[in-house]
Amino acid sequence: MKKFAADYAFPLDGSLKPLERPLVVTDGSGKILSVSQYPQDGPGDADYRKGILIPGMVNAHCHIELSHLKDVFREATGMSGFINQINALRESVDEEGRRLAMEEEFRSFSRQGIVAVSDISNCTESFPFKKEYLSHPHFPVYYRTFVELFGTEKEDAESILEGGQRIADQATAAGLDASVTPHSCYTMSPKLLEITARRGLESGAISYHSQESQEEEDMIMKGSGALADNYRERGLSTPPVTGTTALEYFIDRIAEKEGKVRGRINLVHNVVLSQRSIDRAKEALESPFFTICPLSNIFIHRQLPPIYLMRENNLKICLGTDSLSSNHILDMVREMECIQKNFPDLELGEILYWACTNGAELLGREDTLGSLSAGKTPGIVLLENADGFRINENSKSTRLI
Questions:
Q1: What CATH number labels 57-330?
Q2: Domain range summary for the chain, segments of one domain joined by +
Q3: How far apart are CA 70 and CA 306, in angstroms?
């Protein structure tokens, strides 16, 4: 049995408020036995730490296999410029360099208190690390792999899907949870988007880059803009012009004739999310999640998602880091810092709920992760230097169990 104490805790178990003088008791496996308050005269024999206890965090969107691209990309290029850099630089580091870069980020995730990751893969290179950390003796991390597919030409759709399925099958054979997933409206033919989304939803969940830029909206709504021009210059087909938002376009591709689309759908980025798109998502999708990656959005677009609009609509918001091709560091605390700086009236408890509880539900792990609740094994993380419940440049997280 282990006992942990601190100045405060955010159990996230039915309340977003902090608990003063928390005492968290676990068994040897990390399962929480009880959460209470220690007496005014002190925590007794508990392992006391100055700071705030929180559940393990869930990184709801990452491309860990792109870790070799750290500090390589130019910022503020827009989506068209970012795609050009991906095409030019993705293979710029050899296999050993890519492996070492990934290894560093896998270790960092485990130490900083990330207990689960919704990770995008285009190849098998990350699978050995994911298998290793799934059963890590001290700080295990669960990785849900989404094998992301691209392809603008209709005639290639079936072969691309089957190639992606083979990669997902290799992950499954290694003991990992994995499935195919569509990338975005602008990188896929309508046919590939439709068949990939439906195949992925057979597993219960997909991840989809949605409304990340105005360039994406312009391509779908008007057939114009920098992204549309980029694709035409490269001789690639573009999606049909619909006059609808990019999210509506996606939903129209997968909508059911009767009832809502079933399964957890992770809509990632949401930088230009609108009320019109939200209304359509609520109407057509059974379980949508809206993941934000604020530092990545600033890196590429110098823009942030409409978080206040998302809150007004009671959307299930999750938090991710994206990749080191569009971020200087993969650290959930830095993402929280960015949110509080730009949306100063947001309370820490709500942001932690996005980073822990909603993320656990997104991955179907809410029975074991997401809150400091008796019977769960969510991991226990110490959040330091968050005075007044404000995240600042000195704030950091460390996993305790």
A1: 3.20.20.140
A2: 1-56+369-401, 57-330
A3: 27
Backbone torsions φ then ψ of 341, nearest 5 degrees: -70, -40
Integer Cα distance of 24 and 256 in angstroms: 46
Nearest alpha-carbon partner for 280 in 243, 247, 239? 247
Q: Rounded CA gap, 240 and 270, in Å?
A: 21
Instruction: Tell which CATH classification among 3.40.50.150, 3.40.50.740, 2.30.40.10, 2.60.120.580 matches the domain 1-56+369-401.
Output: 2.30.40.10
What is the rounded distance in angstroms from the CA atom of residue 365 to the CA atom of residue 368?
6
pTM of the predicted structure, to 2 decimals: 0.97
pLDDT in tens, the chain (401 residues): 999 999 999 999 999 999 999 999 999 999 999 999 999 999 999 999 999 999 999 999 999 999 999 999 999 999 999 999 999 999 999 999 999 999 999 999 999 999 999 999 999 999 999 999 999 999 999 999 999 999 999 999 999 999 999 999 999 999 999 999 999 999 999 999 999 999 999 999 999 999 999 999 999 999 999 999 999 999 999 999 999 999 999 999 999 888 999 999 999 999 999 999 999 999 999 999 999 999 999 999 999 999 999 999 999 999 999 999 999 999 999 999 999 999 999 999 999 999 999 999 999 999 999 999 999 999 999 999 999 999 999 999 999 99
Question: Which amino acid is residue 31, in one-letter code?
Answer: K
> Do 1-56+369-401 and 57-330 come out as alike in CATH topology?
no
